[in-house]
Design a protein that fits this description.
2 copies of one chain form a homodimer. By secondary structure, chain A is of the alpha+beta class. The first copy, chain A, has a domain of about 200 residues: Arylsulfatase, C-terminal domain (2-Layer Sandwich), CATH 3.30.1120.90. Chain A is built from 10 helices and 6 strands. The first copy, chain A, has a 4-stranded antiparallel β-sheet with strand order 1-2-3-4. In chain A, strands 5-6 form a two-stranded antiparallel sheet. In chain A, strand 5 and strand 6 form a beta hairpin. At the A-B interface, helix 1, strand 4, helix 6, helix 7 and helix 8 of A face helix 1, strand 4, helix 6, helix 7 and helix 8 of B. Chains A, B: It comes from Geotrypetes seraphini. Chains A, B: It holds the Pfam family NAP. Chains A, B: Forms homomultimers. Interacts with histone B4. Interacts with the B-type cyclins ccnb1 and ccnb2.
Chain lengths: ~325, ~325
C-alpha cells in the first residue's frame, strides 16, 4: 500500500512499530500455550462423559429411562405416525431380537461413513476391520513436554491385527516463525507419527500381493515370485509421510497428502471425538452444512472449514465467534 | 443419517449419548469463559506495547535507531534502487521538512482506507473527521461481569464533536442455547451498544438537512421548513440497531446490517487493534489474501473469513490451526 512512498522519518517509525508487533507475536504464543494448558485441564473434565459414552456404545451399561429422555420435532412426528399406524391396526411388531442389540452397533464405523473426509479414505476391505473400532480417544502431551496430541483408536480383538490400540501423534509448534513472525496465528500441526500395525498373516490391507513370472537366465526355467505393492487403505493413516527430515523438501503431492492428513488429525481431535454422537446421527453435519452447494459445503466442513453457512443464516451471522474457540483448519 | 431406522433399544441409547453431549456443551462453555479470562490477562500484557505504539504514532516518542532496525527484501531493493539513482546523479533531495512529520500521520485513517470492510462505510465527509482518530483500544468486561468488550475510539480535539472518546460495546453470550445446545461453538456477540456523539453545530454528518416548503391552510402563505433525514456515515457505527428488544424480530435487512456490525466489531478487536501496523502497511492484508480472486478474497478476509488461501499454499495447508486461536466471524 502507500507505505512505500512514506518519508524516511515515518518509515523509520513504522519499523519501530513492526518491532513492537513482533514482541506482541511472542506474547501471543504464550497465550496459546496457556490455552493449551486449559484444554488439557478440560480434557480431564470431559473424560468421565467420554467413558460413559463408550460404556453405552459398547453395551456394558444400559442407560436409565431418565438418562434416555429426549425431545425433538422428528420424534414427535414419529410418535404421531406410529399412533396413526396403531389406529389403522397396522402396528408393526418390534423385531423379536429388539432387546438383543448390544450397545450401539457400528457406532464409530457409521461415523466414518457419515464424514466425507473419512469415508473417502475407507476402502471396501477396510470396512470389516473398522467394525471392530470401539473408541477413539485424544491424549494431550504432558505439561512441560513439547506440544502434541495423540489419537488412540481402540479396537476389540479381531482377525486382522494384534494391536488393541492404533495411535497417531500430531506434533505442534506454538511460536512465531522468525522469518515470518506476522503470519503466526497460534499452534500449528507441524509433524505426525503413526504406529506399526501388527497385521495377522495375509490380512494386511495396506499392501497388495502381485505375482510375477521370472525366467532363470541359465536354465531358462520359469518361476513365479510374489511381490508386495502398496494399496489404498484407511490404515495408511498410521504410516504417514515424514516431514521431519529437515532440508529436503516434499513434492506438491506429498505436501497435499500431508496437509490433508493434518486436517484429518485436527478434525478428529476438534470435532469427531468431542461430538461423536452428532456425527453418528448426522446432526453435526447437517447443522454445519448450510451451503447452497450441499455436498461441496459439507466437504469443506469436513475439512474443518468453518464458514459453512450462507447469508440467509442470520441466526449465526448475528453471532461472530469469540477468541479461544476451536479454530478450523484452513482450506480453500 | 441412518439413525432414524434404528431399533428402539438403540435409539434409546443414542438419546442417552445426546444427554451426555449436552453436558459436555456446558463444560465447553466454562472452558470458553476461562479462555476469556486468559484474554483479559493477556490484554494487560499487550497494553504497554499498544501504549508505546500510540506514543510513536502520535509523535510523543521518537524511537531509537536500535528500535527502528528492520530488514525486508523490499527494503533491500529500495536501497539498491537508491544507489543506482545516486550513481546516475539523480539523487532526489529529501523534502526539507523531512524531519518535521509528527509521528505517523493519518495512521488510523490509512487503516480505515486499507481495510475494505471499513472503507465501505467511510463517506467522503467522514474522512476529515477520521483524520483526528488517534487510537483504538479494546477494553474487556471486568471479571464476574457479563462477558463483553468495548471498542474505544480516541480522537484529538476537533471541530466536529466534543467527545474525546467514542465507544461501542459488544455484549457476548457463552452458554449453549437450550433449544439448540449442539450449535454452541463458544462465546458469541449477541448485542451491541453505541454512544451519543456530541456533534458541534451543523457538523453532524449522520444527518442531512433538507428544505421543505409548507403552505399555510388558512392564509395560504408559504414557509420553508428544514427537516433532518439520516445520512450514510461511518459514524452511524455508534448508533446501531437494537436487538435487545426481545420478542419482536428484525427484518432481513436489519439482521444483515447487525450481522455486519458484529463482524466489524469482532474484526476491530481480533485483528485491527492487535495488528494495526500490518493493516497500515497492508502486510496483514497481503499475507492473508492469497486468493486467486484477489479483491474478492481480500474482501472476504476483511469480513474476518479466515480461509483466504488456495490449495497451492502448502506452507499454511500444512499447518491446521490449533484450538484457542482467534476464531473468525462466519460469512459466506
Amino acid at each position: 500500500m502507500a507505505a512505500n512512498n512514506l518519508p524516511k522519518a515515518v518509515k523509520r517509525r513504522i519499523n519501530a512499530l513492526k518491532q513492537l508487533q513482533v514482541k506482541c507475536a511472542h506474547i501471543e504464543a504464550k497465550f496459546y500455550e496457556e490455552v493449551h494448558d486449559l484444554e488439557r485441564k478440560y480434557a480431564a473434565l470431559y473424560q468421565p462423559f467420554f467413558e460413559k459414552r463408550q460404556s453405552i456404545v459398547g453395551g456394558e451399561v444400559e442407560p436409565t429411562d431418565a438418562e434416555c429422555e429426549w425431545h425433538s420435532e422428528t420424534e414427535e412426528e414419529e410418535k404421531l405416525a406410529e399412533d396413526m399406524k396403531k389406529k389403522a391396526v397396522l402396528a408393526e411388531k418390534e423385531p423379536a431380537n429388539e432387546g438383543h442389540y448390544k450397545g450401539v452397533p457400528d457406532f464409530w464405523f457409521t461415523i466414518f461413513r457419515n464424514v466425507d473426509m473419512l469415508s473417502e479414505l475407507v476402502q471396501e476391505y477396510d470396512e470389516p476391520i473398522l467394525k471392530h473400532l470401539q473408541d477413539i480417544r485424544v491424549k494431550f502431551s504432558d505439561p512441560g513436554q513439547p506440544m502434541s496430541f495423540t489419537l488412540e483408536f481402540h479396537f476389540e480383538p479381531n482377525d486382522y491385527f494384534t494391536n488393541s490400540v492404533l495411535t497417531k501423534t500430531y506434533k505442534m509448534k506454538s511460536e512465531p516463525d522468525p522469518s515470518d513472525p506476522f503470519s503466526f496465528e497460534g499452534p500449528e500441526i507441524v509433524d505426525c507419527e503413526g504406529c506399526t500395525i501388527e497385521w495377522k498373516k495375509g490380512k494386511n490391507v495396506t499392501v497388495k500381493i502381485i505375482k510375477k513370472k521370472q525366467k532363470h537366465k541359465g536354465r531358462g526355467t520359469v518361476r513365479t515370485i510374489t511381490k508386495q505393492v502398496p494399496s489404498d487403505s484407511f490404515f495408511n493413516f498410521f504410516s504417514p509421510i515424514k516431514v521431519s527430515g529437515a532440508g529436503e523438501t516434499l513434492d506438491e503431492d506429498s505436501e497435499f497428502t500431508l496437509a490433508t492428513d493434518f486436517e484429518i488429525g485436527h478434525f478428529f481431535r476438534e470435532r469427531i471425538v468431542p461430538r461423536a454422537v452428532l456425527y453418528f446421527t448426522g446432526e453435526a453435519i447437517e447443522d454445519e452444512d448450510n451451503f447452497e452447494e450441499g455436498e461441496e459445503g459439507e466437504e469443506e466442513e469436513m475439512e474443518g472449514d468453518e464458514d459453512g453457512e450462507d447469508e440467509e443464516d442470520a441466526e449465526r451471522d448475528l453471532k461472530p465467534k469469540d477468541s479461544g474457540q476451536p479454530a478450523e483448519c484452513k482450506q480453500q
